[in-house]
Write a structure and sequence with these properties.
FAD/NAD(P)-binding domain; 2 domains; 8 helices; five-stranded parallel β-sheet; 26 strands
Length: 411
């Protein structure tokens, strides 16, 4: 899009295109979004399985093909180690030298570092710890029981995979978003897209901080489009416990609020399904199946603690989310919680932008299919910023539209 506007730019990539998909994902990972939703500007899925789900290897190939077809000026093996504001723009230090520019788009995403709670410090030394960034497959775990912490998309997927390897699994469940894979004969994300829920703008959402902090939905991209929820995991024999609240003398203590977590997740799911039903009725979508509802999440036998020194649990997988890494960004653009201050991707600093964060400008912002709309908005703002900041320097006779100075996009 920058090229469409004749804006000189360069993309700085710490490895190769789609680096994180190649090197920081577990082997069995598939996208949560179906292939027909996998698209970037001028580039979309063209294969024979539109209702399938890409593997991490396939996503890497898709992104690499986009980089090649778009002709983007990508500098590979160029990690940014520092960004500082200077007069007229920004100074970047990279592993390939210095870059001076007027504007910067931070496209490093929200999943640079695993978020592991301080509970980890109290784990007995004989119990191994893993995160989704260093886990690859179940056979790398020690034999014996596994405690998976976190029941969002990553947690439920890996709990099932590890259980099928023959290891006993306990899943610690906190706040979660329950969704069926399909509803009324259509993928649940078809309903999100067609009904307009995914396109809801950030400035129309009542509690934006809450929306941006929601866990990822309990979805899995299985070829058979099966639903994977807590009822399914319980039927498989996976033990469900509450949110991990503390460690005391080598014992994991779990919250007793599991019933409330289940009730709230079921209630929110049904409210969303009500929204879809109302939209379908208003738009005369008679080609979809009739409305349906799903069994409430079944409450397991209460278990409030687990002795981590007994040998029952040999490893812990922390599926507790991710966070961005801005350690290289040296500018006064963070709030008191260390979060980047921005208004829909327009950072609180002249000429600085961010893209790819949850609910950045729309509810779909952090998904691949959400990149294009957000990018168009931000590039339009960037164009206006360059026009206004360079108007005094431009010669009245100049008709060349290209802007001076590079616009690095950090990926």
């Amino acid at each position: 899009m920058l090229a469409e506007r004749s804006i000189d730019h360069v993309v700085l990539e710490r490895g190769e295109p789609a680096n994180s998909w190649r090197r920081e994902r577990w082997d069995s990972l598939r996208l949560l979004t179906p292939n027909w939703l996998t698209r970037l500007p001028g580039h979309r899925y063209q294969g024979a399985e539109p209702d399938g789900f890409m593997t991490a290897v396939e996503v890497a190939g898709f992104v690499s093909a986009f980089a090649k077809s778009s002709g983007a000026p990508v500098r590979t093996e160029t990690a940014v180690t520092s960004l500082e504001p200077v007069e007229g723009g920004y100074q970047l230090a990279t592993t390939s030298g210095e870059v001076r520019c007027r504007t910067v788009i931070v496209a490093t995403g929200a999943c640079n570092l695993p978020h592991v709670p301080a509970l980890r410090e109290g784990i007995p030394p004989g119990v191994a710890s893993f995160t989704p960034m260093d886990y690859r497959r179940a056979d790398q775990l020690p034999e014996g029981g596994v405690l998976v912490v976190g029941a969002s998309a990553t947690g439920v997927q890996l709990a099932e995979e590890i259980h099928r390897s023959g290891r006993p699994v306990t899943l610690s469940v906190g706040e979660h978003v329950r969704l069926p894979r399909t509803y009324r004969g259509r993928d649940i994300l078809w309903w999100m897209a067609e009904s307009g829920v995914w396109d809801e703008r950030y400035d129309k959402i009542d509690d934006l901080d809450r929306a941006r902090g929601l866990p990822s939905p309990q979805l899995v991209g299985k070829p058979d489009r099966a639903t994977l929820d807590l009822n399914v995991l319980g039927e498989l024999g996976i033990k469900l416990v509450g949110r991990w609240a503390a460690v005391r003398d080598g014992r994991a203590l779990f919250s007793g609020g599991l019933r409330n977590q289940f009730t709230l997740a079921d209630l929110k799911m049904n409210r969303l399904l009500d929204t879809f039903d109302a939209w379908a009725q208003e738009n005369d979508h008679t080609q979809t199946a009739p409305p349906e509802r799903f069994d409430p999440t079944r409450l397991p036998e209460t278990k409030l603690e687990l002795d981590l020194k007994s040998g029952e649990i040999r490893s812990i997988l922390w599926a507790t989310g991710f966070r961005p890494d801005y350690s290289w960004l040296h500018a006064p653009v963070f709030d008191r919680k260390g979060r980047l201050r921005h208004d829909g991707g327009i950072v609180d600093a002249p000429g600085l932008y961010v893209i790819g964060l949850p609910v950045l400008r729309r509810r779909k912002s952090s998904f691949i299919c959400g990149a294009e709309d957000d990018a168009r908005d931000l590039v339009s703002h960037l164009m206006d910023y360059l026009d206004s900041s360079s108007s005094l320097r431009q010669s009245p006779s100049s008709s060349h539209r290209s802007k001076s100075g590079e616009v690095p996009r950090l990926s």
